[in-house]
Amino acid sequence: MKFRFYAFKLAGIMILIFLLQFFFFGFTELFLLNENSWSEPWRFLSSIFLHGDLGHLVYNLFALILFGSILEKVIGGSKFLRVFFITGILANLISVNFYGSSLGASGSIFGVIGALIFLKPMMIIWAFSLPMPLFVAGIIWAAGDFLGAIGFFTGNPIDNTGNLAHLAGMFFGLIFGSLYKKRKGRNH
C-alpha cells in the first residue's frame, strides 16, 4: 500500500480555491451549499472546498493534513478518499436542510476523524491543551457540536459553525471505520 499524500493534495486544492474565492467576486456563491443545491447538485461536492475566511481554511487544513495523513496510512489512499468525499457529501445532504448556506471541509474532516476513532481509538493526540486518546477527544468534539446544535434549534446559536455537518460527518465516518475494521479483522 503506497502512501500518496492525498490529504496534502486536497489541502493544495483548497488553497487554490480559496485564492479564487478571494480574487473573483461571486465565485463562492456559485459553489456553496444553499437552497439551489437540489437543482445544482455539484454544490454538495464543491462546497467542501470553499472556506469562509483564512482562519477557517487554516484550521481545516491542519486537521485534514494531520488526521487525513494518519487515516491514509492506516487504510490506504483510495479508501481515505472514499471516506473524505462520501462523508462530506452526506454531511452536506443533511446540512442543506437546516442552514441557509454553508461551506467548508468540516463534514469531511469529521468523517475522517470518525473513521480514525473507530480504527485507532487509543491513539494519543494533543487536544484541548492535553494529551488524550482520540476517542476521548472525539467525545468532547461531539459534545461541543451537540451543544451547538441545541443552541441552533433553540434559536440561540453560539456562532455560525455547522455543528450538524460536524456531527453528521463524524457519524458517517464511524460507520466507515466500523466497516474497514471488520474487513481488516477478516483479513488477519
Structure description:
The protein is mainly alpha-helical and 188 residues long. The protein has a single domain, classed as Rhomboid-like (Rhomboid-like fold, Up-down Bundle), CATH 1.20.1540. 68% of the residues lie in helices and 6% in strands. It has 8 helices and 4 strands; from the N terminus they run ααβαααβαββαα. It has helices at 6-23, 27-31, 43-46, 54-75, 77-95, 106-119, 134-153, 163-187, and strands spanning 33-34, 101-102, 124-127, 130-133. The protein has a two-stranded antiparallel sheet with strand order 1-2. A hairpin with a 2-residue loop joins strand 3 and strand 4. Helix 1 (6-23) packs antiparallel against helix 4, helix 4 (54-75) runs parallel beside helix 6 (106-119) and helix 5 runs antiparallel to helix 8. The chain is globular, with a radius of gyration of 16 Å. The mean pLDDT is 93.
